[in-house]
Write a structure and sequence with these properties.
Rossmann fold; 7 strands
Length: 268
């Protein structure tokens, strides 16, 4: 029960494929009290209300790009908990350029701005709202989910790579300010390709998923194991980790070439 007595907000649970969904289920099992939230359009598409009923957790609609919505979310969450918040998970990402099949060399810039706003700037807005409302307990933990395309080139990941790079930069810079204010840790987790609704929308995702699985000595990290890692980062066992991008990818990020790929190449 490593989260016994802790209270947290989880953004982005859409369905049982979502990492945020897995985090919510496991956090509850480890003793946490939760508030679940997602954008109104995502709530219509997914099953977050059913998850809220299952976990006895209120579901509060909030567009994470709206400062007004976020202030309402954090205020109502504190009222529900009867106090401040211990952890937050930002599991939000969307690219209209990817959805519309626009190549990186032919971006629609209005879509690009939406990608950055939804997938990265929203994290700054979450952090800034929590900061202004002073609603995080000392030694709290705030996480966002990232991907290795923030550092390395994966052409089909498109403008989401730029968004993830910005997301990680925000975590480092705001992490400094939150650490000096009241010891709140801010980190990102760079997860393996994962069979989520968002991930599977990327061009060639199934082929890349299989490639990454063979390249990684431990294989791809599942959504369930990512959720376990998130719980560890929310707990008191990781109090001195902040401003980090933490790879949770079965070793993929440190590989150059894996012999497991040779049979695939020989068959070409």
């Amino acid at each position: 029960m490593i989260l016994q007595g802790k209270k947290g907000i989880i953004f982005g649970a859409l369905n049982d494929q979502s990492i945020a969904w897995q985090v919510a289920e496991r956090a509850k099992a480890q003793g946490a009290e939760l508030v679940l939230t997602n954008a109104p359009v995502a709530m219509r598409m997914g099953a977050i209300k059913e998850l809220g009923q299952q976990l006895n957790a209120p579901v509060i609609k909030a567009d994470a790009t709206s400062e007004e919505h976020l202030e309402k979310l954090f205020t109502e969450s504190q009222e529900h908990f009867g106090g401040k918040i211990d952890f937050v998970l930002h599991s939000i990402g969307m690219s209209l350029n990817v959805r519309k099949g626009r190549e990186y060399t032919n971006l629609d810039y209005s879509f690009f701005q939406k990608t950055l706003d939804i997938s990265a700037v929203s994290f700054h807005k979450v952090l800034q709202t929590a900061w202004k409302l002073d609603c995080m307990n000392d030694w709290g933990s705030i996480l966002a989910l990232s991907y290795i395309a923030a550092q390395r080139t994966f052409p089909d990941y498109n403008d989401m790579a730029d968004a993830k790079a910005l997301l990680e930069s925000i975590a480092r810079t705001f992490g400094y300010h939150f650490a000096t204010k009241n010891k709140v840790r801010v980190n990102t987790i760079s997860q393996s390709p994962t069979m989520t609704t968002a991930g599977s929308g990327v061009k060639g995702f199934k082929e890349f998923f299989d490639y990454a699985d063979k390249m990684s000595p431990l294989g791809n990290a599942s959504a369930e194991s990512c959720a376990d890692f998130c719980l560890a980062m929310f707990s008191d066992f990781t109090r001195m980790i902040t401003m980090q991008n933490l790879y949770h990818d079965g070793g993929f990020s440190n590989m150059g070439m894996s012999p497991a790929l040779l049979p695939m190449l020989e068959n070409q």
